Amino acid sequence: MPMSATQQRSQGQQFNRGRGAGDAVMDGKSKLAADAPVAIAVEHVTQRFDGRRPGQQVLALDDVSLEIRAGEFLCLLGPSGCGKSTLLNIIGGLNRQTSGTVRIGDTVVRGPTPSQVAFVFQESTLFPWYTVLENFKVSSDFQRSQASTWNDRAMSALRSVGMENFANHYPNQLSIGMKQRINLARGIFLDTPIILMDEPFAALDEQTRMVLGEDLSVLLARTGKTIVFVTHSLAEAVFLADRIVVMTARPGRIKATLTVEEPHPRSPDFMLAPRFSEIRNELFAILRDEIRQTVAAMREARDEGVVDG
Amino acid sequence: MAVSDFAVAAAPRRFSLLGNLAIQRLLLLLGLLVLWEIYARIAGDTGMIAGPSGILRAMGPKIFANPKVVAAIELTLFELAVAYGLSVVFGVVIGVAIGMTDFGRRCFNPIVVLLYSVPQVVLLPLIVLVFGIGPLSKIAFGFSHGIFPVIVSTITGMRTVNPTFLHGARAMGASRFQTIRHVIFPNMVPAVFAGFRLAMTLTLLGVLLAELYVSISGIGYFTQVFAETFDPSPLFALMTVLTVMAVALNELVRLVEARFTRWKN
Ligand SMILES: Nc1ncnc2c1ncn2[C@@H]1O[C@H](COP(=O)(O)OP(=O)(O)OP(=O)(O)O)[C@@H](O)[C@H]1O
Ligand SMILES: [Mg+2]
Predict the structure, then answer these.
(1) Which residues of B touch A200 (CB under 8 A)?
(2) What is the pairing mode between strands A38-49 and A99-104?
(3) Residue-wise pLDDT tens digits, B135-177
(4) Using a 6 Å CB cutoff, which residues line ligand 1?
């Protein structure tokens, strides 16, 4: 496989700041997809929201079905307001869908399942009144985790994102990028088989995003977690995902699914490969119409608003 | 103004004595004291006003050497401490009880705001009637002044929690109790302390008003005695003691606040 050389290099770069020993790298992770068990099953999920006025209902998700396999990295892509966050919240049990079922393993989701699912949001949810380490401790208490090794696990998660020297800082003493690194580390620290990430890097600059994306690829290859990752960045999606699901403009449906055959961890060289730009361009072609439609709908809503007022 | 700003900015700060804010303030204060002294000496009526030097001279013999006055200061401090403690405890408890639910906020918040805006002095005669002319009426009046800012700020603090934190806590599986303990309570600390500071000032006001209205002891009583006997220097000295007390107590609350809001920087 041509990738093995880059794979090795990337490991060499990354692992000297990671915890290193004991974590096996999963080879050819994308090959897994077909025969791994289903980790998350979304079956005919529909979500309606009541609008501000009666009769002004919003159909956010329309009959979405999706299977995500254990160890898979799935990216959700779609125009703004198409229901990506809504879908993620439904999978995590934070929203109750109007109809349809979500299963995690064999269990039907009826509320938050913190032992199975960790979230990483766009905005840091670190509490500003606790230090980084205290935040980790509180999360583990929230999760009702019995493990007494939380401190070691917290430190090793922080080390894996290069933030171990900031364990006793308050979040306000850190930059947005640092906070988001720690947010990511906490998602890993929570030690759940599934992580749901809602635009975790959206608030960051392009360069930081790329570095964090690389780190993430390495980290996840090591832990074999199942990830659902929402992003607006095509490059990020191609670089990280095993599979990319493109959604339509609201009401959100699944428009297309693309597979990226490339083992994790991925090196930055992958971004230079011709295949990378091919997939990226394909994605853009699929998305363009949907985004046009969203913008048109927004204009329409605005014009209606003018008439109303 | 602009020119002096520029000068301050241009000169390296630590080398310029006049550029130091503390020194500027001190100079301003000294200037005012000097003007006051001059006015008291050349134009003031000795039965109405005393200068800083006269106040300083009265401080020893007429205030601290008089066991009755010292006892009065102690009594006022005691009344203040009790009234403030009650305000803080009951204010937070009532504020949390009201702020906890939407129902509580909708029903009781308007009542609290209404009571808060009543000029309480009109109730003073009633309070004295109920609680007598002893310390009890002063504590009650101090309490009725102090509790409202605490209630109002506690309710505000509970309401203004960032939804992101609640969302995050829920996603991590926090129970209702854990959410209150780790999100809602720490979040409301700054707002609550703003209420505590205001309550300190208002409690002192309430206690002193009650003492001035009717009493046989306490600082309020002596200020009245000194004023009615046209003896301004101990009166002013007593006021100075009061001011120092008020400032010191406010600083104390601020210190405790700083201890609890270290994370804010
Ligand atoms: N709690 C809610 N009440 C009413 N409408 C909602 C609610 N949450 C989301 N919506 C609506 O549902 C639609 C989908 O929202 P969602 O946040 O899932 O979009 P998104 O794809 O995550 O968008 P973005 O990319 O901008 O984050 C939007 O039109 C939004 O206005
Ligand atoms: Mg979203």
Answers:
(1) none
(2) antiparallel
(3) 899 999 999 999 999 999 999 998 888 899 999 999 999 999 9
(4) A 49, 58, 60, 78, 80-86, 250
Pick from A122, A129, A166 the residue to mutate for testing the B interface (most B CBs within 10 Å). Answer: A129
Residues constituting chain B: 265
Task: Specify whether B67 is located in the same domain as B183.
Answer: yes
Q: Which of B173, B183, B264 sits opposite A112 (nearest CB)?
A: B173
Closest CA to A278 of A255, A254, A262, A289: A262
Q: ipTM of this predicted complex? A: 0.79
Task: Please tell me if residue A15 touches chain B, with a CB cutoff of 8 Å.
Answer: no
Residue B217 · residue B160 · CB < 8 Å: no
Written as six digits, the tokens of B240 are: 């100075």
Strands (E), A188-267: 194-198, 226-230, 243-247, 254-259
Domains and CATH numbers, chain A: 3-107+194-199+211-304 (3.40.50.300), 117-191 (no CATH)
Identify the DSSP state of A115: T
Query: Measured between alpha carbons, how far is A64 from A44 in angstroms, rounded to an integer?
Result: 5
- Strands (DSSP E) contained in A95-180 are 99-104, 107-108, 117-120
- How far are the Cα atoms of A83, A100, B24 from residue A108, in angstroms, in the given order? 21, 11, 69
| Structural domain span for residue B14 | 3-43
pTM (2 decimals)?
A: 0.78
Nearest CA to ligand 1 atom 29: A81
Interface test with A, best of B260, B263, B264, B265 (most A CBs within 10 A): B263
Q: How far, in Å, CA of A279 to CA of A238, rounded? A: 7
Cα–ligand 2 centroid distance for A122 (angstroms) = 9
Place of tokens 């980084």: A132
- Tokens matching residue B149: 């800012």
Whether residue B181 sits in one domain with residue B109: yes
Is A123's CB within 8 Å of B173's CB? no
Q: pLDDT digits over B81-136, tens only?
A: 999 999 999 999 999 999 888 888 888 888 888 888 888 888 888 888 899 888 89
Closest ligand 1 atom, CA of A84?
Answer: 21
Same domain, B19 and B120: no
